[in-house]
Amino acid sequence: MTMKITLPDNSSRELPDGSCGFDLAKSIGPGLAKSAVAVTIDGEQRDLYDAIHQDSSVSIITIESEEGLEIMRHTLTAQVLARAVKNLYPTSKLAIGPTIEDGFYYDVESETAISADDLEKIEAEMKKIIKNKSSITKKLVTKSEALKVFKSKKEPYKEIIINESDQEDNFQLYFQDNEEFVDLCRGPHLPSLDFIGAFKLTKVSGAYWKGDSKNAMLTRIYGTAWNNDKDLEKYLTKIEEALKRDHRKLGKEMDLFHFQDEAPGMVFWHPYGWNIYKTLQNYIRSKLDKNDYQEINTPQVVDRKLWEASGHWDKYRENMFITEIDEEHANEKRVNALKPMNCPCHVQVYNQGITSYKDLPIRYAEFGSCHRYEASGTMHGLMRVRGFTQDDGHIFCMPEQIESETASFISLLSEIYSDLGFNKFDIKLSTRPEVRIGSDEVWDKAELALENAIKKLDLPYKIDEGDGAFYGPKLDFVLTDAIGREWQCGTFQADFNLPDRLDAEYVGEDGNKHHPVMIHRAILGSFERFIGILIENYSGKLPFWLAPQQVVVASIVSEVNDYAIEVKELLKDCGIRAETDLRNEKISYKVRDHSSKKVPMILAIGKNEKSDKTVSIRRIGSTDTEVLDLKTAVKLINSENEILD
Predict the structure, then answer these.
(1) Catalytic pick from 46, 304, 386, 474?
(2) What is the pLDDT of residues 186-201, one digit of tens each?
(3) Is position 474 annotated as part of the catalytic site?
């Protein structure tokens, strides 16, 4: 009996019933058989030697592919790191070991403390295991059989995972040659450890079982893995560069902001950091004014009734800060929430008065202060906070206006990103998630409208299935920074649900009332996160117009302090963020000090400069100086600040 196997190019092959992916790869060619590590059968990843018993669509996963790399990382953590830990720490208990972006980790419980100092020893043990090039085999067992295996090996976390499963059979146990080591895993795994590439363990941290602080604290061992030493070295260099650019480190060096325990996830902006914030906000405001947005401002504390009507109370309450107030003469407490987003409040502004189709589109913008509860372990400097301000906006329009509004928004977004130093971005179309509001019919309409709009613009995009907001599909705009990292910042979300839920209407050309489409849009996302991205992208050396300190006028001798102050005041009158440094220090010290704080321009003032009415200009990163008369220097400095005009 044979099966029909359909390949990705729509060609087909006849294979005997019970053949596996390796048999298919071998029938295609020896090169493919040599590099095959797994298969995809009817859309599901499976192990290379899993038998196929019916007509199927099958593709071979090779070690060189992204999927192959992911499987290699998965095998490395589950079969090599886990085994190395058990070899070195026999009484340790294994928890879980998934892959993550660019790597993997394993959580273990160990009586003996495992620290970063132990990583080299664990790596050496892993290499010893890999050297044997053991084949990896799989057994399918029942629930009771799986429990028996891990009970005998004293692995309580594996028992918990098995007991919590609804299935009664087909538990996958993976072994190496001698079957001394076994792990429970969803797979697939490599057929052999011979396919393992280059790897490195990177750090150790604490992690609670299931992320719950009520549970045991485990040791989490992180690592990264790549197909070869060259790719590994490239990644490690990138990580090293990222550490140098870390906005938290630079924020401290440049005196921009800080965090403290009394307000977790909330930013304390210092004067220099607030300079960046204000400059960026004023720049965005000027762009919005030119694109017919009306700026509004809405309350931060709003009664739960509005959040219930909008759907956020059911879908988002766990991320909201809830407050209870004893209203005077009231019989019960009034429950409010700090707004986690601005959209329901913007609908309230729209709903004041009667809107005609002739008034649409209406574009509202708000620098909206929002609060969302983020778990303490997920917060990360400016990149993930609990209190933030969005460059938020909502467009109320008719369905037939979506395409033109999409084009206008992308044009505005492109201009702003270019001014901020990002000349390229990728677009993702995120479709309906499992948890959502609204009918499938409404979602069909919303997704089609966005996709048609972006197709008409002839822009490349990728579809991200299931990653839409709970109220509608969206376009996400992803930036790539100076060291190749991707950041999702801008968003454009078509919402056919909220206007209906909150009774937003307009009078159409037919004289009847209709619900507008509500487009949620942001370009930066949040000021906090985007400033963190800017700091890291530029390694603190922000463009002149955005720098927190643009110019420092530094005196060489005290006799010229009066002239240094005169130069500073002249620059400040022109809107330049200028300061003086009149300390009794050598000019070389002052240059080093302000260069470390990423000040883009230092004007050195000595006796010659005072007598000649000139300045000596030194730019960050350069050892050269340029002597200009004061009038020419001011004109030059102003020209470098003209992006704000």
Answers:
(1) 474
(2) 889 999 999 999 999 9
(3) yes
